[in-house]
Amino acid sequence: MSDIFKEVDEDLRRDQAARLWAKYGRYVIGAAVAVVLATAVFQVWNWWDKEQRAERSAQFVAAMELMRDGDSETAAAQFGAMAEADGSYGTLAAFNEARLQAEAGNAEAAVEILDMLAESAAAGPSFQGVATILAVLHQIDQGDPAALEARLKPLTEAGSGFRPTALELTAVLALRQGDSARAVALYTQVADDRSAPAALRRRASQMLAALGK
């Protein structure tokens, strides 16, 4: 008889986690994207200060202007051509191409580009981390949770600049799988991490409150 009650209790926990995911999941994803993009923008402008010159700079600026003016298809093509070359502008172009593909509804194409960036030593650790986070975000609703968690694991290690965001996304994946206890443990790590951005800590605390902790 106790086994029956245990099974019912587990079912209720899974249902609660599913409801929380449906209610808060999109908010969490949107907030995480904002953090990742803020990191990317910081890196972009560092490079921009150092390399705003020559033909590739002009090409990049032209593609950015096309994107700003709403000509996404042409901009994506130009970014795609630039992404084939090595160097900082190639990396930035690839990120923008992935963004435009995602905005056009081509999530698979965006993930393919981001996966290439995540595996590219030439992109450097910071951009590899950004690419990994974004690739996971684009698949977090439908992708295999275990596979996505495995991709995030290196970023959850101590010393990783992406640790709070990676832990938060891992908590989202735990909720997707109905494991609210593990989600609570992960959100607690983020909420208690004094080195994490205030917005992430606040969001983790809100999720803990929503989970009844």
Notes on the structure:
By secondary structure, the protein is mainly alpha-helical. The protein folds into two domains: 1-36 and 145-213, no CATH class; 53-139. It is built from ten helices and no strands. It has helices at residues 2-51, 54-68, 72-83, 88-103, 107-118, 125-139, 145-152, 163-176, 180-192, 198-210. Helix 1 (2-51) packs antiparallel against helix 8 and helix 5 (107-118) packs antiparallel against helix 6 (125-139). The radius of gyration is 19 Å and the shape is elongated. The chain starts with a helix and ends with a helix. Residues 1-12 have low confidence and may be disordered.
Q: Could you give the topology of this structure?
A:
Blueprint: H1 2-51, H2 54-68, H3 72-83, H4 88-103, H5 107-118, H6 125-139, H7 145-152, H8 163-176, H9 180-192, H10 198-210
Key descriptive features of the protein:
disordered N terminus; 79% helix; elongated; 10 helices; single chain; 0% strand; 2 domains; 213 residues; mainly alpha
Please report the distance between the alpha carbons of the first and last residues.
28 Å
Give the overall form: elongated
Count of runs of 4 or more consecutive helical residues: 10
| SS-derived structural category | mainly alpha
User: Percent of residues in beta strands?
Assistant: under 5%
**Total individual domains:** 2
